[in-house]
């Protein structure tokens, strides 16, 4: 599986989506992820459940437990059209 393949997924409607955090990393953006994605959502008028979905992902934080990351999956057709993958 290539890096691009690991960033994308397909839902039950066969709509392709890309993980926003993985896209952010691939673009080598230096801003904080939360600020970057929130700005893109406002700037390009993304609509939740139409252009993207968000969910919590629990990851191992340290020896004391896990932490929750807010993840976003962006529908590829909508996102590519609206932002042209602009950093």
Secondary structure topology:
Blueprint: H1 3-7, E1 8-10, E2 16-19, H2 20-26, H3 33-43, E3 52-62, E4 65-75, H4 76-83
Task: Tell me what the structure shows.
It is a single chain. With 87 residues, the chain is of the alpha+beta class. It has one domain. The protein contains 4 helices and 4 strands. Strands 1-2-4-3 form a 4-stranded antiparallel beta sheet. It is globular. The two termini are 24 Å apart. The N terminus is likely disordered.
Binned, the helix content reads 25-40%
pLDDT below 50 for ≥5 consecutive residues: which ranges?
Answer: 1-6
Determine the structural class based on helices, strands and strand pairing: alpha+beta
Q: Shape, please?
A: globular
**Beta strands, count:** 4
**Number of structural units classed as domains:** 1
Brief description of this entry?
The chain has four helices and four strands.
Keywords:
disordered N terminus, globular, alpha+beta, 4 helices, 87 residues, four-stranded antiparallel beta sheet
């Amino acid at each position: 599986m290539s890096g691009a393949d690991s960033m994308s997924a397909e839902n039950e409607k066969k709509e392709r989506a890309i993980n926003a955090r993985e896209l952010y990393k691939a673009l080598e953006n230096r801003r904080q992820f939360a600020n970057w994605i929130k700005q893109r959502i406002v700037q390009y008028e993304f609509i939740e459940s139409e252009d993207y979905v968000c969910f919590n992902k629990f990851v191992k934080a340290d020896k004391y437990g896990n932490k929750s990351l807010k993840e976003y999956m962006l529908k590829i057709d909508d996102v590519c059209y609206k932002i042209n993958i602009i950093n």
